[in-house]
Amino acid sequence: MSDDLANRHCKPCEGGVGPLSADQSADLIKVLHADWSLGADGLAISRTFNFPAYSRSLGFANAVAWVAIVEGHHPELTVRYGSCTVSYTTHAINGLSDNDFICAAKIDRLATGSA
């Protein structure tokens, strides 16, 4: 099912709809890589990717940024020497939307080299 998510595209979200329910988010996170976690407040998902050098962390962050530009859905990125943490939420609805899980699945695909 992660491939199903990764093959979808984000739809613009300017508010006017509610965030996903806790049950919906719990179901969707199950199809992502096991390293994705749901925030304690249920408003965001995140995953840390580890790399052997800063240049690799930065290269990965740039690839994630490209996905964000193409999809029109932008994560928070924290780049460190050996890691890059990617966090998604949909600010317009103050919670999670399908877009967050679609982008996370695309990032999973990117990380495995099958993008």
Give the structure's gist in a few sentences.
The chain is built from 4 helices and 4 strands, in the order ααββαββα. By secondary structure, it is an alpha+beta fold. Strands 1-2-4-3 form a 4-stranded antiparallel beta sheet, with helices on one face.
Low-confidence stretches: none
What fold name goes in the CATH topology slot?
A: Gyrase A, domain 2
Tell me, briefly, the overall form.
globular
List the helices and strands in order: HHEEHEEH
Strand order in the largest sheet = 1-2-4-3
CATH architecture heading: 2-Layer Sandwich
Q: Major sheet: size, sense and barrel closure?
A: 4 strands, antiparallel
Describe the structure.
The chain has 115 residues and is α+β, with helices and mostly antiparallel strands. The protein has one domain: Gyrase A, domain 2 (2-Layer Sandwich), CATH 3.30.1360. The chain is built from four helices and four strands; from the N terminus they run ααββαββα. It has a four-stranded antiparallel sheet with strand order 1-2-4-3, covered by helices on one side. A hairpin with a 2-residue loop joins strand 3 and strand 4 (83-88). It is globular and about 40 Å long.
Features:
115 residues, alpha+beta, Gyrase A, domain 2, 4-stranded antiparallel β-sheet, 4 helices, 40% helix
Topology:
Elements: H1 2-6, H2 22-29, E1 37-38, E2 45-50, H3 54-71, E3 76-80, E4 83-88, H4 98-112
Antiparallel strand pairs: 1-2, 2-4, 3-4
